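step=encode ok
step=design start
structure_in=
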């Protein structure tokens, strides 16, 4: 009788353990089986050819590239470019909003077919795992100053100039290397305000983000005085998993058509006031 009680208790504990999320070794092993990975069962080119809905990873919180309007509709430059590409391909897209730090892992794991979130794909590690389609935007650094400020010929000219930059950002590092008189901020908006208040002479930040600000605030009293030369800009494109050459070719063809028919120009002017697809 005592043995039966022990066996019954042990069996009950085993059942309880298997019922917990991720609590059993067998559940973890099943989750790691290669046959459960969506990218191995359905290739992107097959989804395109069969006119299936493509799943697109994006943040939804990164204006003006991917964000929600006041009525809740998801929009933004990257979002609308993706919709235009889908129309050229003859497919529908469903956006899956996700934090940036989980986005590329989601693409690799098959949660998304495509990522549309201003990805330049510059690191060798990511280039080994993913492919980037032809860029739909090009960006670099930009310097904004008050309207009466003289143009700046080259980035080195900010040496000794009181420059507002976000603390610990890439722009902070660049300004430091150039010998600027640093005024640190937490956000881009704070840097622009400091320039308006004459507590800094210039601010250095992302070109597309600053173009968006200047377009939305034509009476800000600020203007562009310098931006990265074209040859040094980085291009952002739609990103897919590696080893999908046919799908990549179809996306590139669609992007070329959007550039040729003026769609990219129109969208660039809508969100930034200029065509940002030009290199």
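sequence_out=
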């Amino acid at each position: 009788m005592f043995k039966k009680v022990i066996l019954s208790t042990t069996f009950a504990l085993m059942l309880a353990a298997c019922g917990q999320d991720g609590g059993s070794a067998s559940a973890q092993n099943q989750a790691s089986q290669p046959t459960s990975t969506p990218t191995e069962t359905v290739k992107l080119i097959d989804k395109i050819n069969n006119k299936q809905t493509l799943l697109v990873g994006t943040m939804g919180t990164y204006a003006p590239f991917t964000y929600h309007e006041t009525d809740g509709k998801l929009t933004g430059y990257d979002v609308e470019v993706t919709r235009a590409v889908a129309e050229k391909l003859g497919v529908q897209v469903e956006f899956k909003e996700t934090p940036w730090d989980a986005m590329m892992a989601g693409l690799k794991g098959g949660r998304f077919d495509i990522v549309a979130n201003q990805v330049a794909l510059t690191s060798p590690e990511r280039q080994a795992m993913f492919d980037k389609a032809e860029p739909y935007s090009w960006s670099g650094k930009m310097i904004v100053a008050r309207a009466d400020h003289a143009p700046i010929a080259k980035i080195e000219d900010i040496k000794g100039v009181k420059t507002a930059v976000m603390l610990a950002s890439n722009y902070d590092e660049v300004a430091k290397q150039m010998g600027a008189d640093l005024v640190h901020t937490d956000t881009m908006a704070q840097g622009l305000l400091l320039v308006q208040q004459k507590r800094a002479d210039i601010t250095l930040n992302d070109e597309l983000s600053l173009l968006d600000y200047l377009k939305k605030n034509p009476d800000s009293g600020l203007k562009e005085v310098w931006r990265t030369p074209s040859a040094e800009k980085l291009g952002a494109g739609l990103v897919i998993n590696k080893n999908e050459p046919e799908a990549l070719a179809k996306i590139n063809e669609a992007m070329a058509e959007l550039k040729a028919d003026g769609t990219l120009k129109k969208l660039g002017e809508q969100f930034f006031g200029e065509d940002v697809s030009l290199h």
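step=design ok
step=annotate ok -> The CA atoms of residues 59 and 101 lie 10 Å apart.
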